[in-house]
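Deliverable D2.4 — example input (C-alpha cells):
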C-alpha cells in the first residue's frame, strides 16, 4: 500500500529526531524510545487508518472493531486498525513502566529486553517493512543495561566498604 509506505517514510525523520533528543537528554533512553515508538505507531495508525477510524465512529463505536476473526470481511480493516493502534498504546505504557522502574534507581530485568528482542525479530521477519526493527534499539538497551546493572550490584555486594 503506497499510502502506508509514504507514512512510514514521513515518520522516519520524526523517529530520528526523537532518537537524537533522547540521546541528548541521556536519561531513561530505552524507556523514552519505547514511548516514542508507541506515539509514532499511534500517529501512523491514525494517518493510515483515518477512514476506518471514521467508520468506527460513524457506526457507533461499540463492537465495530470485531470482524469475528475475518468472518465479517467488511470489518477486517477495522479490526486491523484497532490492534495496530493498541500495539502503539501498549508500547507507550511499557515505556512508562520502564521509566518508572528506572526513576526508582532500579533496572528492568534483562529477560524483558530479551523478550522484546524475540518478539521484534519474529515480527520483523513476518513484516519486514514494519517498524518492529525500531523496538530492537530499546530492547537491546534493556538487555545491556540490566546486565551492567546486575554486575555492578554484585561488585558492590562483594566490596568490603
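Example output (designed residues):
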Amino acid at each position: 500500500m503506497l499510502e502506508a509506505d509514504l507514512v512510514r517514510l514521513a515518520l522516519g525523520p520524526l523517529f530520528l529526531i526523537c532518537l537524537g533528543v533522547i540521546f541528548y537528554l541521556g536519561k531513561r533512553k530505552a524507556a523514552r524510545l519505547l514511548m516514542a515508538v508507541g506515539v509514532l505507531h499511534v500517529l501512523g495508525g491514525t494517518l493510515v487508518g483515518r477512514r476506518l477510524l471514521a467508520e468506527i465512529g460513524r457506526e457507533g463505536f461499540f463492537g465495530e472493531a470485531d470482524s469475528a476473526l475475518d468472518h465479517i470481511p467488511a470489518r477486517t480493516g477495522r479490526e486491523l486498525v484497532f490492534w495496530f493502534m493498541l500495539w502503539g498504546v501498549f508500547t507507550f505504557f511499557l515505556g512508562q513502566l520502564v521509566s518508572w522502574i528506572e526513576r526508582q534507581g532500579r533496572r528492568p530485568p534483562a529477560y524483558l529486553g530479551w523478550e522484546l528482542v524475540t518478539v521484534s525479530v519474529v515480527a520483523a521477519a513476518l513484516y519486514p517493512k514494519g517498524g518492529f526493527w525500531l523496538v530492537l534499539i530499546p530492547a537491546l538497551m534493556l538487555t545491556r543495561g540490566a546486565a551492567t546493572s546486575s554486575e555492578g550490584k554484585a561488585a558492590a555486594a562483594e566490596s568490603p566498604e
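Residues 76-103 form the longest helix (28 residues).
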